[in-house]
Amino acid sequence: YKTTTLANLGAKLPIGFRGSVDYSTRDWTAQEELLVGEAIGDGGNVGHYCEAVLSVLSGTFGGMQVWDGDKRLVSAQGFSIALQSAWMPDVLTAYAYLRFASNKAPLKLQLRDPDDRGKPFEFLADMGSLEVRLPVDGCITWTHELLQPVTMGGRKITRLIMGPQKWDAIKHIHGNEIMSRIMIIASSVRGIPEFDERVEDASIDMIGAMRLSKADISALAEGVEAHGLGPIFVAEAKSPKTRRPFEVAIPWRYNDFFD
For the residues of 73-135, what is the DSSP string, one character each? Predict the structure, then answer.
């Protein structure tokens, strides 16, 4: 992958949806704020927050026109259904860009100084400097040679073509950290050479994933993180006491991210 910043990338999607990488936002007024609140409802996981905000504030998402001025062309439910086939890096990039475009103010994070006994301090994260990873020459996949081949469907599987997840996958990831990691790996499989599957159609179910060795699970987890595309929700802060830099995760639930 290659890297850029959210500010330099602008209103673009890393991979693209329905034949286009273009993205546009709507003006965020009190009316839109109310619509967002209605869409969020009683809350949900981070996937629900992303969909709710994007369904109201996205003018276009790739090749899908969501609003025409003040006229909604795609319902909230229709937008959610359409988004299931979108790439996760595109959805998260649009979500991050919406925060950057709608509110130029830095994101306020309440941190604790690791070099001063956890003393609290406020850190201002510049959203425009957020790192975004982009595919090189349109290539979104990488290959993992299985350390311990497995048998699926009566065939010996020796390689997995890995890549970004579809947005639908985030709604099905649950459970403890170990189970979530296996589910992420399963939903990141984009090709199985022995089955001659295309990037769009490839999949590996949880039964297949559970056959993978511990060594392969560890290697794949590292690979998924290392080859990940889209925004990296991490900021570099500095200890007020020692000025030593350290990384902090940027929270992206609605109340933390947009207020």
Answer: SS-HHHHHHHHTTSBHHHHHHHHHHHHHHH--SPEEEEEEETTTTTEEEEEEE-GGG-EEEE-
* Pairing mode, strands 131-134 and 119-125: unpaired
For residue 204, the model assigns a pLDDT of: 60
Burial of residue 38 (CB within 10 Å: 0-12, 13-18, 19+) is: exposed
Q: Which residue has the tokens 């010996």?
A: 156
How far, in whole angstroms, is CA 148 from its chain's centroid? 29
Is the pLDDT reported for residue 42 higher than 80?
Answer: no
CA distance 163 to 127: 26
The per-residue pLDDT for range 114-161, each reduced to its tens digit, is: 999 999 999 999 999 999 999 999 999 999 999 999 988 788 999 999
Q: What is the DSSP string of 38-63?
A: HHHTT---HHHHHHHHHHHHEEEETT
Token readout for 214 is 């511990």
Query: Within a 13 Å sphere around the CA of 57, how many CA atoms are in the beta-carbon half?
Result: 30
Cβ atoms 255, 49 nearer than 8 A? no
| C-alpha dihedral sign at 16, 19, 22, 26 | negative
